[in-house]
Design brief:
mainly beta; six-stranded antiparallel sheet; 106 residues
């Protein structure tokens, strides 16, 4: 068993305004994000299946050309290799789970 405290995980700025704390297992990665209002995650895709949970704020999320405004409590499933992007309409706190693990985030 591995136990860590979120408050003790070092934060990394993955994109301008996107600050992440990451925790990795063998088959998945978990991410806790603070996203500054107006910050954008550019359109991209990856082999990882992804689940996103909006803890707080309003986040405009696009998946394969469909755009939705996501708010606290919303869950989003992002299939493997699907193009997606987002913009923080307010300061946001998000949580992601990726499978398989994100070696590029280690």
């Amino acid at each position: 068993m591995r136990l860590e405290n979120l408050n003790q995980i070092q934060e990394k700025e993955m994109f301008p305004g996107l600050h992440g704390k990451l925790f990795h297992g063998e088959q998945l990665s978990w991410a806790f994000w603070r996203v500054d209002e107006g910050s954008a995650v550019p359109e991209h895709h990856h082999i990882h299946e992804q689940m996103m949970y909006v803890i707080s704020g309003r986040f405009e999320f696009s998946l394969d050309g469909i755009t939705k405004i996501c708010e606290a409590g919303d869950l989003i499933h992002i299939p493997s290799n699907q193009f997606h992007s987002g913009i923080a309409l307010t300061d946001c706190v998000l949580m992601d789970v990726f499978s398989p693990a994100r070696d590029d985030y280690k």
